[in-house]
Amino acid sequence: MSGLSELTITEARDGLAKGTFSARDLVAAFIAAVEQTRPLNAFITETPEKALEMAAASDARRRAGEAGALEGIPLAVKDLFCTRDVPTTAGSHILDGFKPPYESTVTENLWRAGAVLLGKTNMDEFAMGSSNTSSYYGPVENPWRRPGDNRPLVPGGSSGGSAAAVAARCAPGAIGTDTGGSIRQPAAFTGIVGMKPTYGRCSRWGVVAFASSLDQAGPLTRTVRDTAIMLGAMAGHDPKDSTSVNRPVPDYEAALTGDVRGLKVGIPRQYRVDGMPGEIETLWQRGVEWLKAAGAEPVEVSLPHTKYALPAYYIVAPAEASSNLARYDGVRYGLRVPGATPTEMYEATRGEGFGDEVKRRVLIGTYVLSAGYYDAYYNQARKVRSLILRDFTEAFESVDVLLTPTAPSTAFAIGEKMDDPIAMYLNDVFTVPANLAGLPGISVPAALADDGLPLGLQVVGRAFDEETMLRVADVLEGAAEFAAEPAFVAGRGEAP
Amino acid sequence: MAVDKATVASIAKLAHIRVADARREALADELSNILGWIEQLSELDTSAVEPMTSVVAMRPPLRADAVSDGDRRDDVLRNAPEAMHGYFVVPKVVE
Prior knowledge:
The structure holds two protein chains of two kinds. Chain A contains 15 helices and eleven strands. Chain A has an eleven-stranded mixed β-sheet, sandwiched between helices. A two-stranded antiparallel ribbon of chain B has the order 1-2. The interface between A and B is large, with 72 and 52 residues.
């Protein structure tokens, strides 16, 4: 059946419920779409046989009247989530050959809701990056191109494979992780919706750890409604993650009432950063007008410590990474490079197994945690983090959500910004603060820039109030009427 | 804080990462740049601020100190680069 691979999750769900097509039909269409998308390098591992088995089981459940919230929906999974007996690489050479004997809680939740695994998506190594160029498995190409310019562009990162897959319509939805913007920034770069839930909303158990106090799993989809559906299936308390919160999971789809009348939308003045293109400022203003026209009230707010968020992040995240990545030593799983003594083996394995960006961050983390520097760097960053959280808490006393741009630019060409780590880090200037404060954030595609590439707007919500955030995002999406499509759409022809 | 080649070598040692001598100089520059940029945090007076310990206010959950999973030796060893007789194999540690 043709055309099935262009359906959104909502459309596919409704077609399956009506019996217009089976899960097997739907999954077969997406498996073909995944094959057509190969030139983008969005997947590290495709799992077509498993997908067909899961689809058959899904059809059987539906016949038995046991359909879950995502029954029969095929999904792409970032290769950071452990999946039982399916290779899990974290985009790194050091996890060569690793097949987890267990399943992450988030993916387990998705399968329990009836979803089907299409494959594991490419990503920046250990989720460290904003361009998906640090993967051991090679860069991912964005399905978008600048008009009249065939240079391959980055999809953003680190969940770049997940974003490219959804944008290219070879998966109706995907999951990613967001430590400093790794879901929202690639969503913006590829013209799709991406959300990071409140820290603690989704279990981190079975997700390869980067920076444990910041990491959070979330969905990437083409619509806000699809994101609401996926979040409902992913979220929930998990005793195996001590930071997972024990709170009921609301019906997120029901929160999309379309009514934002009377809501106060904070516009943080510190997000007008130097060098931000005028068109991003203009789009932001247009977003404010859209919400105003829908009956919301814009309020200027101040988040005075915003400029310190990125440098604080680049202490906290590498510090936690240096500790989390200490486990990769060549003894129990993954790559081993031989050495005459255990220490030589560790050094050789880690020297060869980690890429340049991961090494840089582990070394920075080791340095800021080392004796003599711990207070000046690590403790200072934790204090700054307290100040950033306080800024948000105070702002949320007078507003319900915040509206900002998602990223300070559109997608750039593969190879650009590669020799200057700090220029790369600046991609996350608008997304990192929500991670430091644990708040939920969502990027919604809002317009095309002058270069013909998508731009996103970000809505940040109060902790555990994803519902209001999603409601505002849904209204924003309706007003933006973003209908532009990437240069490459699976199922319509050859990849560029 | 500028990092020199010798500092790179010593933190690489602490991190158990082999860094080729030829790469140390460039890495020293890269790390110095990043640390120089991070340095701006010292502008802030944080003497009255408590460092953040948890981003979401919650009591750490407690559980019984009991085995909840186990008897999975072969599952665990299946991923080992080298295993023998139910053990991980490593280079000789004690002479």
